[in-house]
From TrEMBL:
Name of this protein: AD domain-containing protein
Domain (AD) ranges: 78-174
InterPro entries the UniProt entry points to: AD (IPR047574), Gemin6 (IPR009422), Gemin6_C (IPR046856), Gemin6_Sm-like_dom (IPR046857)
């Protein structure tokens, strides 16, 4: 019917159609007829923007190709588990705390922070399936690696105060 608004492409494309490209090597041709080859990390379903990663020797290059410029997509290779492509892609965009700190270092950081919070008269408990989370009542939790940005709370006031305490924690407070 005339006068009906045109539906946005997000309502016309099945999400499975986009998911078929994730973690696969593709060739994307843009409207300027340039070909971009890389591994798809994700596709934004609203803007249809592709995030491609190219692994070049020891370097990586991230390409963001707006959906409005994409004219053709061809799958070149599937990600085999033995290639470790999925892990490489995920590692680029998600911090790997295990890689940054050893178990011993994480244990030390947790203990040091727990002692600091207790010195400031906060009721700290060790929780989590492996005893890796510090909690203060039900109001706040601190996950590894126990830094300012690892605090989670729905109460902004409590969150701000605990983050302030962590920022002001002396390096040698556990030596007192």
């Amino acid at each position: 019917m005339e006068g009906e608004p045109e539906l946005h492409p997000i309502f016309q494309t099945d999400p499975e159609e986009w998911m078929q490209y994730v973690y696969k090597q593709v060739s994307v041709v843009t409207e300027d007829e340039e070909e971009h080859v890389g591994w798809v990390y994700t596709i934004d379903p609203v803007s249809q923007t592709f995030v491609l990663v190219q692994f070049l020797d020891d370097n990586r290059q991230v390409l963001i190709l707006p959906g409005t410029s994409v004219t053709k997509v061809t799958v070149l290779a599937e990600s085999a588990d033995s290639d470790g492509i999925k892990e490489k892609l995920d590692a680029l965009f998600r911090p790997q705390t295990e890689a940054l700190f050893s178990e011993e270092e994480l244990r030390g950081r947790k203990q040091k922070l727990k002692m600091w919070l207790e010195k400031n008269r906060l009721p700290v408990q060790v929780t989590g399936s492996k005893g890796e989370v510090l909690t203060i009542s039900d109001a706040l939790m601190i996950q590894p690696p126990y830094d300012v940005n690892d605090c989670h709370s729905t109460n902004e006031i409590i969150l701000g105060r605990i983050q302030g305490l962590i920022k002001n924690m002396p390096e040698d407070h556990d030596q007192w």
